Amino acid sequence: MSIWNPDNVKDVAESVGINALSDEVLQALSSDVEFRLSQILEEAIKYMRHAKRTTMTTQDITLALRTLDVEPLYGYESTRPLRFGEASIGPGQPLFYVEDEEVDFEKLINAPLPKVPREMSMTAHWLAVDGVQPIIPQNPTPADTRSMDLLPKGSSANPHLSAVTDTPTATTATPSVVKPQVKHVLSQELQLYFGKVTSALLDESNEEYRVAALASLRTDPGLHQLVPYFVQFVAEKVTHGLKDVWVLTQVMHLAEAMLENRTLHLDPYISSLIPPILTTLLSPHIGPAATPPSTEHYPLRQLSASLLTSICAHHAKSSQALKPRLARTCLKSFLSPSQPLRVHYGAILGLQATGGKEVIRALVLPAAKEYGEGVLKEAAESGDEGRKGEAELVARVLVGVMASLEDDEDVDMVGVVRQGANGTDEAEWRAKVDARLGGYLGERVMKIGGVKLAKTLVRAVDIEDDGLLGFKGGKM
Q1: What burial class does residue 123 get, using C-beta atoms within 10 Å of its C-beta: 0-12 exposed, 13-18 middle, 19+ buried?
Q2: What is the pTM of this model?
Q3: % the chain with pLDDT above 90
Q4: Contact between 393 and 386 (Cβ < 8 Å)
Q5: Do 237 and 251 meet the contact criterion of CB atoms below 8 Å apart?
Q6: On the CB side of 316, how many CA atoms lie within 13 Å of its CA?
Q7: pLDDT digit string (tens) for 425-455?
């Protein structure tokens, strides 16, 4: 016999318009209601015990209904347990009711008014700026992000799902795939593109393939997600391939193509791109060790200097300390007599690329005489043919960057100056140049640029000396 009264089921059925129910149906429905109620109570008791309570609340019933996939009853949420009173309407028929709380009207009237609720409003915040998520209350903290990264994701997190999706596990004969710890946010198309471009750049046998890859990098507008990967690729190849000038040249062409692509926002990555460029410009150990020293690294240094020129022209506004830091690094290498001449070659080109005429006039020109009469002349008179050739190359590039002080365009980037109209008194200007730049550089100034270049450099040195004297005398 069911504990639940069938008359209650009959009353509910009549309230919804069902009048003709047999006794067997009422009895079956009573048994089912009793089973459902006992099931809900058992789940609610579990929540009550887990909460370390001895009194069941409406929240326990709501959670039990949700556990059983039943829509909860609304309107019965309460932070305190309900108190039931008992009233007797006849013998053996108790009636339970919820006791209402007595309210003191005097206290209710004298109570302070509640705070006015805030009006509904909307605020905007940045999810990410230049690919970096700002630390604001609306965004998850770095600790939350790290904890989410540690959680298992994908089908490999569940061995049953792995079996369904044919993912290899430790129990199968196929060895498990070790996944990197970096989250992959690139699409399959971008990953395939990155692999094709990097393999094409390092393929010596297919120049057409390599040229097409660089052309795509210069013009494709949808490569912003690949920029950090390309920057890392350049850094790795420069770090581990200093002996291979061809590979270094290709990765510098890769950096050049990215700098020429105006659709890419490279400002956040310039600080990571500059170290490999400076390495190919100033490193003394580029190329294989050979006797006499190889000269194939000089075009690479010229390419690296042109990249610095592009960076200073288009990305110096994002960092006010960019140009001074580059100039300081190149000047330190130029003024170091312990560095080989190949480093001085790159440092001179780097100084010109960093600041142009201003840097040449302020930093290179005052040190030219001491450098020419000391380092270059000593290398030229050492008897070593390799050092003598390097000294000649450095002297030509030094004269070339100083010749950029001319107002016209009689000088090219690598120091090959087209002959202009020479003056009548060549010996007089040769003596003036020797007095200001030394005999070693003076001879090459007259040979490369003639009297016109000599006049320019003599005037520039005199102006610089007058400025220093005026500053020391307190006139400036």
Answers
A1: exposed
A2: 0.58
A3: 19
A4: no
A5: yes
A6: 17
A7: 778 888 887 788 888 887 888 888 788 887 8
